[in-house]
Design brief:
The complex is a heterodimer. The termini of chain A are far apart. By secondary structure, chain A is mostly beta strands. In chain A, a hairpin with a 4-residue loop joins strand 8 and strand 9. Chain B is mainly beta. In chain B, the strands form two sheets. In chain B, strands 2, 4, 5, 6, 9, 10 and 11 form a seven-stranded mixed beta sheet that branches. In chain B, strand 5 and strand 6 form a beta hairpin. Classes of the chains: A mainly beta, B mainly beta.
Amino acid sequence: AQTVTQSQPEMSVQEAETVTLSCTYDTSESDYYLFWYKQPPSRQMILVIRQEAYKQQNATENRFSVNFQKAAKSFSLKISDSQLGDAAMYFCAYRGSTYYTDKLIFGTGTRLQVFP
Amino acid sequence: DTGVSQDPRHKITKRGQNVTFRCDPISEHNRLYWYRQTLGQGPEFLTYFQNEAQLEKSRLLSDRFSAERPKGSFSTLEIQRTEQGDSAMYLCASSLARHSHNEQFFGPGTRLTVL
């Protein structure tokens, strides 16, 4: 069975600085998708960034980028130029690649605090 | 608003009572998912539908839980004989599954408290 581990329950960063959130996963599949989701307090979860395992190039979305190390089964999220609005719970998630393997498997989350 | 909506947003019930939650997906999304999130944990998959067919159920979904999506649009999740351990946030998500690359959009959740 696939598992996702986030070993940092809480992280903090100063506004405009850079922070990296860690995620490791375990799977026997060779093709899959990895995601980072953001869950602001009392608000719904939104997708931050997605990585396809077959792509060697790391995904980037504006200030958000990932460091995907397939052999190490590591998938970290880097937030550059942190903003107050980045404060939230961040969840790393795994999904298999087949059409019917559609459930997301989440880690336990990292709470990110951003200080002015 | 064309996002995923859930009703009610909060539900307080007494142990042993039945509760039902509703989820309205994004229009034209053919897949609908239910997850459960307890305090300090990430969401856990419960079940998902493609149109009206329930394609997968987690072992977390005991006999007291039942989900339906009768016309392939909205879905309901019913919990019978609630227990204190059922207290959690119940999240619904939907997606348009054309291929294996499909994004799930989440609703705001229904927070259940069982006294």
